[in-house]
Amino acid sequence: MKKLSKMFIALTCVGALLAGCGSGNTAQTPAPAQQPAKEQSNSGSTPKTSGEPVTAVGSTALQPLVEQAAKDFMAKNAGAQIQVQGGGSGTGLSQVASGAATIGNSDIFAEEKKGIPANELVDHKVAVVGMAAAVSPQVKVDNLTKQQLIDIFTGKITNWKDVGGEDMKITLVNRPKSSGTRATFSKFALDGKEEAEGITEDSSGTVRKIIAETPGAIGYLALSYFNDSVKALKLDGVEANAENITSNKYPVWAYEHMYTKGEAAGDAKAFLDFILTDEVQKKTVTELGFLPITDMKVERDAEGKVTQK
Amino acid sequence: MKARLMDRAATVVLTLIAVLIIGTLVGLLGFILSQGWHKLNLDFLTSPPDIVNAGGGIGPQLFNSLYLLVLTMLIALPLGIGAGIYMAEYAPDNKITQFIRMSIEVLSSLPSIVVGLFGLLVFVNMTGWGYTLFGGALALTVFNLPLLVRVTEDALRNVPRSQKEASLALGITKWRTIVSVILPAALPGIITGAILASGRVFGEAAALLFTAGMSSPNLDFTDFSLNSTTSPLNPFRPAETLAVHIWKVNSEGLTPDARDVADGAAAVLIIAVLLFNLSARWFGNWVYKKMTSGSN
Amino acid sequence: MSHRTEGVNTERKSMIAQKMLTTNKRQKTENITGKTIAMICAGLLVIVVLSITYFIASKGLSTFFVDGVSFKEFLTHDKWDPEGEPSAYGVLPFILGSFFVTALAALIAAPLGIGAAIFMTEIFPGFGKKVLKPVIELLVGIPSVVYGYVGLTLLVPFIREQFDVLGFSLLAGGLVLALMILPTITSVAADAIEAVPQDLRNASLALGATRWQTIWNVVLHSALPGCLTAIVLGMSRAFGEALAVQMVIGNTTKLPGGLFEPISTLTSGITLNMGNTIQGTPYNNALWSMALLLLAMSFIFIVILRLLGRKRLAK
């Protein structure tokens, strides 16, 4: 009996320990809670929200933008519930098509993915992302012609000296075959040529790290991921910047899409409209390294046909 | 002479191996802790991550990890203990029992990614829940059940027969005996096992990528209702745990201090796992001392 | 605790007492309910295993039955291009990558792990139990993401600078995995070595054998099935590991070409592509088939372990 009671004391101790962890957490709650409260107080004009939860699932590249926009949207519209989840463009498109998600985030046109009923989905282009070939700063080359780029990525050119650089082996850093970034880069920078096998990573952060640290490495990144550790190459002498992309002088860019099944309604519509306001486009979109969709001077369809706006 | 030399050489080599292993661990821990040390302050531990700017914390992720742990244990412990009781007390020696044993082995050797994919298929897609904490907890339950069953069974079997017999002799039913005599005596072993399993829950990422998701909604830590999407306690919301956060920040982080955040989060994760390990060890020793101190 | 030796007699008495007293109806239902609950819990384990097998198999097999990919081509071709025209579904590079990296990890970890096991059971049991064992158990607790992260920041650059190669390689994956499976091998092997009867050691020593000769010829010999079990257990862990490996092997989809060449594994192939593909498409199904292969491998590992276990019992 004595032992039994001791066991219970022991149990209580563990319980207390767990409770301690728990209370440690509740103690830290005020900090995160303050922010929404503050933002809520300055939400003057509150449009009506249906309060129906909206889930936006898909592209991990687009996720930070949608998350930030959702945060701002919910701060303005008390009662609105928007859940943002990653999972990848494929997941986003399948879930919106099956009705599991309200909005499917995708890096590519639904038409480009096999097995998606693209005609049932309504496209909302919310931002533009530019992409550029990236090399480590030690590489002396600043510019490549499209042919040179194709030759490098198809494995024909394997040394930087063949394109005017120093004598250094070229290491390809690639994306998996299913990646939207790969699809865009291959379509507009490599004219759809079959790429040679190289190091393969899905995530932009890892790709950047590998390019930065591996001498002679070349890969491609969305412009938002460029920092001091990697260098963007010009393509045919054209720099990948906002001006050249909005006018399509620099062709390697893609839309960020948010698909709905049928026309958007209720909070989903309000949210999508909110993302297209200047408030999001000029601030969050730019801050995260995307280009505002509203700045684009051209339009491009799923087949890649470009028309002036 | 040659044999003696061999003996000497073997001792040296084996000692070197031991030193190498200890050195590796110390180096590993030292590296992780030294990289993340400067991030370890209250602000980092409590503030939410920032998507755009530097200076974000890991508050919600830390909470998610702990909450997921509690949820997983709430589901896994009763099931594990129940199955452990069956295996130790009831299971007849026949083909069915063997099949159950085989199932436990299969479960414990399943790659975590397979469990994650199963979770994706069943808990995420088929139930229509989407990525949820609850789905994550179920996947982790699948993961930890074999360990808990085994630990429970061992602990129950190690309870002296005399205790069981004494209870049965008093006319107490078998089930009562199990619940009120054998189980309490086996508790220390079960708790040690549970704490070790907790460490695994805390560190698991591959299975959670596909079940609990990689995002955390804006949490309102003043809202404790179970069904509001911003409530931290709502089990049907997506949740990113600390281990998943390290993975995500490393791979997709856009903030200038992504590397710092990953370093800090890794240090926190390591410290948490160390705590789990040490407390399991300490608890085991403490109970062992209590049991053997001869006070009864 | 002091009545431990009152054998059979008490037992019989207690049985009789139990029979006499449990006639109470309420107690009976309680007994049955309890047993049922316990049975359900145990049954659940079986259900979980069966449903995992069923779901993964039903998804994984559709590559062959719905999409019409030949099973032989899937396993033996080395061209992986599910979105190409014509598409190709050869997963041989992934399979071989998984096997090679697992084998390499076992090659590195087995001598170290068994060496450490001998050290802490035979050479310095005191130090071994107090320091080495806890240290090794701590290695188990370190999350795989952290292993991968450290591998990416320390190991890959180290290999690159030392050998003037890419760094992302079979070797890097093997080393990271070796560290991860070391604890499994060590603790299981240590248990096996400890179980060797002391008499055997004494006999050998009495015959004038040195300590090492005793360990090598007698102890290890009789602990061999146990040590093999340890290695196979470690390998089954290595085969299914995903994130840590993916961060350091480079994931190049081609047949493994050498220690310093990047490789792909089944797990990395799945994690890299699963989120980007559409459910129900042949590409996505092919990934599920790869998961099915992983599942099949863990069944095979279990069968090997069972055989080893039987051998151990026979000894």
UniProtKB/TrEMBL annotation, chain A:
It comes from the Bacteria. Residues 47-279 form the PBP domain. Residues 1-19 form the signal peptide. Its main location: membrane. It is found in: Cell membrane. SUPFAM superfamilies: Periplasmic binding protein-like II (SSF53850). Gene3D superfamilies: Periplasmic binding protein-like II. The keyword Nucleus does not apply. Residues 38-49 have a biased composition (Polar residues). Keywords: Cell membrane, Lipoprotein, Membrane, Palmitate, Phosphate transport, Signal, Transport. It is a lipid-anchor. Residues 26-55 are annotated as: Disordered. Residues 26-37 have a biased composition (Low complexity). The complex is composed of two ATP-binding proteins (PstB), two transmembrane proteins (PstC and PstA) and a solute-binding protein (PstS). Belongs to the PstS family. Involved in the system for phosphate transport across the cytoplasmic membrane. This is Phosphate-binding protein. It comes from Brevibacillus porteri.
UniProtKB/TrEMBL annotation, chain B:
Residues 62-280 form the ABC transmembrane type-1 domain. One of its GO terms (molecular function) is phosphate transmembrane transporter activity. Keywords: Cell membrane, Membrane, Transmembrane, Transmembrane helix, Transport. It is a multi-pass membrane protein. InterPro entries: MetI-like, MetI-like_sf, Phosphate_PstA. Belongs to the binding-protein-dependent transport system permease family. CysTW subfamily. This is Phosphate transport system permease protein PstA.
Automatic annotation (TrEMBL), chain C:
It comes from Brevibacillus porteri. Part of the binding-protein-dependent transport system for phosphate; probably responsible for the translocation of the substrate across the membrane. Residues 95-305 form the ABC transmembrane type-1 domain. Its main location: membrane. It is found in: Cell membrane. The lineage of its organism: Bacteria, Bacillati, Bacillota, Bacilli, Bacillales. It is a multi-pass membrane protein. PANTHER family: ABC TRANSPORTER PERMEASE PROTEIN YQGH-RELATED, PHOSPHATE TRANSPORT SYSTEM PERMEASE PROTEIN PST. This is Phosphate transport system permease protein. Pfam families: BPD_transp_1 (PF00528). InterPro entries: MetI-like, MetI-like_sf, Phosphate_PstC, Phosphate_Transport_Permease. Keywords: Cell membrane, Membrane, Phosphate transport, Transmembrane, Transmembrane helix, Transport. Belongs to the binding-protein-dependent transport system permease family. CysTW subfamily. The chain crosses the membrane at residues 36-57, 91-124, 136-159, 165-193, 214-235, 286-308.
